[in-house]
Structures are given as C-alpha cells and as structure tokens.
Amino acid sequence: MADSKSKTVMHPPKNLRLAGRIANTFIDSKLTPLVIGAALLLGAFSILKTPREEEPQIVVPMLDVFVQMPGASADEVAQRVSLPMEKLLREVPGVEYIYSISHPGVSMLVVRFYVGAKEEDAIVQTYNKLYSNFDRIPPGVSQPIIKVRSIDDVPIMALTLWGKDYDSYRLRRIAGELENSLKPLSDVSETKIIGGQPRQIRVVLDTQRLAAYGLTPGAIVAQLQNTNSRGQAGSFARDNREFQVEAGTFSRASKTCVRSWSGFTPDVRSTCVTLRRSLRTAPPKQTPTSCLQTPEAAQGRQPARSVPR
Description:
Number of helices: 7
Oligomer: single chain
Distance between the termini: 101 Å
Number of strands: 10
Helix content: 25-40%
C-alpha cells in the first residue's frame, strides 16, 4: 500500500481589498527578494552620493532699517514712522515677518524674508521701495538707513578684559588696540567692543557769557559742526608744480586757551573750545574769537549710559 502525501493548498481569503491583493501576490512571488535587494542597493547609493555638511548654509535675508525723528516720543515715533513704514515694507514680495522697535527719537525695523530667498533681490527690492517713497517722509524724519544682517552673524568668541588697577576707560582703550590686532587675521568678519567708556570732547557752556554775547546753545552746536570739517578747496600751479589747497580743520581740545574776548588768558587748566563769530556780531576793536571755558577737562571719558551684564 503506497503512502500518499497530502498537499495543503492555501487559498487566498475572499473579499480582499487592493492592498491585500497586492501583498498576497508578492508573498509567494520569486521577484520579491530581487525587489528588496534593489531597494537596499538604491538606499545605500543615495546615502553615499547625497552631499552633507556639518553646518548647512541656510539663506535667510534680514535687513535692519533705522530712522531718526529727533525730539519725538516713542508713541509719536510708532505712529508717524514705524507703522507707516511697516505697511510700506509689507508690499515688498518675499517678506515673511516685520518687527518694529520704537524708541524716543529712533525707530528700528527688522525685515525678514522667506528661507531660500535671494539676498541680492531682497536688498534691491527694499531699497527701491523705500527710496521711491521719500516724498511720504513726514517733516522732521531722517532718511532710512538700511543695514544687511545674516543668520551667520553670530559671535563665536568673546574676550573679557579685566584689571585690578584699570578702570573702564583704560580697559576700553586697550580693547581698541586688541581689536586692531585681531582685524588683520584671516576669516575674521566683524568685531565689536561692548562696555567701557569711549573718549569724547565735552563742552560745558557758560550761560552768562552766552547771554552777554547773544548766543544760544543751538548756535554753538551748529558752529561746532560747521568748523569740524576739512576738505579740498582747489589747487593752483606755480613753478611747474601743482599745489593742493585744503580748507577747514577738525575740532580738537587744547589745554591752553590762546585768546578770549578780554585778551590773552595764560595757562588755563580747563579745556577751551574756540568759536569764530562773524564780524557783524563782534564787539568793536576786539578779535572775533570767543572762548568758552569749561570747568572740567573737555577731552576725557564719556559718561556711562548702560552697564553690561
């Protein structure tokens, strides 16, 4: 009697949907191992050929727009400068976010574009939008200043200067020398000094002399700005040589006031700033030069406005 082997035949379940019928087809198919192997080889090839960077370059154009409105409060700056400029910059294509900060007399807007936008196109479009609407600037508002920012503008190293016998004024001067030595290094993009007291020329006006000569502080400021300039005034030729003529000079502090309205003033300890007045307002038979003496040395450190933490 011969033994007979019984074979079990697997019948697919009935009422299968599309996904079930496709899976049932590949379960017993001989092509399934080949498809799996091809998928593994394709994945390995894509991993080897795909470019990779430790720090991928993400282009996010950002612009800072600064506008000044001297004498205005923060609310006035927000209503007359920040809000109209926000509405105007919203019309620039590709702008994603706009942040505005209003300070007394100053407004700053941060314009951020979409990721991947071309930086050159963003800068050109922003410049065109602002400069084509200069006629809408309210009276007393300065022209906008645009500064380009980048997502890569992140400090990678911070140096702190400290000295037991050094104050903030001297430490800042040392930091300036250190900054000059770091600038020539390769791959150094930008350096910035934070804190300390920078140098300045401080002018303290004598109210009694201002009243006696009929001057105002605004006139003194305007005169200082006009005299603190120097430029080319032309040239002339003589003996086959050309001479360049420079006019004006820069303001500087001195330890001795050479001449005042009353005459010579020898060895003045405080710093004097010499201002030239016109011949029409000068008293008769006197040199048209006024000396405003300051009780303290005018050349020194700037008062601390903020304390870094």
